[in-house]
Amino acid sequence: MSIFQAIILGAVQGLAEFLPISSSGHLAIVEYFFKQEDLPILFDILLHVATLAAVCTVFAKRIAGLFCVLGRFIIRKSKPEDKGDLMMIAAIIVATAVTGVIGLLLKDWVKAIDIRLIPLFFIITGLLLIASSKIKHNKSAKNVTLLTAAITGLAQGIGVIPGISRSGSTISASLFAGLDREKAGEFSFLLSIPAILAAFILEIKSADNLLAGVSPISLISGMISAFVVGYFSLRFLLKLIKNGKLMYFAFYLIPLGLGLSIYFWGFAG
């Protein structure tokens, strides 16, 4: 893998991990056109580390606050104002558990997915973003309920399908479940932390030869690219969520899906 390829793949991961356009779908398409069918496992792992670092940096204050609340709960010194954050922690646990179950059920099917189906899922994601943008902004729904957590966890599990955006599906699910925009965005990206960690652990466990196919400079270049692009794309997306502009990505995803469908089914054989 060249340094240029590493930077491009890192940028794609950083951009698509958080923007509602499906990182797995875009990486699969980029790998297809680069003629690199199997992404080196260590490179893939470090891209996940870089995007995890990006989301932790953006939400550093919020994450630290949740850990403080959890610490007070463990030592039985919770404050009345901790109730909302304790519910958020419980919701993250419930949603992550649901995601794990769905992910395991879909694991083998996702591994064997035909790349020609990915454009269809881009289109589905675009339509989902349009539908969720039509929901009236609920300013009163500030706390995440366990039902909302279960629904969002289900959406995140389905988001393992290449072409189905994890962030797009979880934010949309939270909005459909009644959360306000800012809380839906926050919950989606806090929920991404255990999801990215789980993907990181699974990839390490399944790795046979971590060092195959990539140089140290390519690893570092890809990782830096993923972190920088991921950080700014996440900041950008949070502003769009607040202003209810997620449907803008549908104007990219739907034409992309249609164009790739024409290519794969009409010209690629």
Structure description:
The chain has helices at residues 3-18, 23-34, 41-58, 60-74, 83-111, 118-133, 146-158, 166-176, 181-206, 216-242, 250-266. It is globular, with a radius of gyration of 19 Å. The chain has 269 residues and is an all-alpha fold. The model has no long low-confidence stretch (mean pLDDT 86). The protein has one domain (3-266). 74% of the residues lie in helices and 0% in strands.
Descriptive labels:
single chain, 269 residues, mainly alpha, globular
Proportion in helices: over 70%
Distance between the termini: 27 Å
Spans of at least 5 consecutive residues with low confidence: none
Broad shape: globular
Q: Secondary-structure element order, as H and E?
A: HHHHHHHHHHH
Number of helical stretches of at least 4 residues? 11
In short:
By secondary structure, this protein is mainly α.
Topology at a glance:
Blueprint: H1 3-18, H2 23-34, H3 41-58, H4 60-74, H5 83-111, H6 118-133, H7 146-158, H8 166-176, H9 181-206, H10 216-242, H11 250-266
Helix pairs in contact: 1-2, 1-3, 1-10, 3-9, 3-10, 4-5, 5-7, 5-9, 6-8, 6-11, 7-8, 8-9
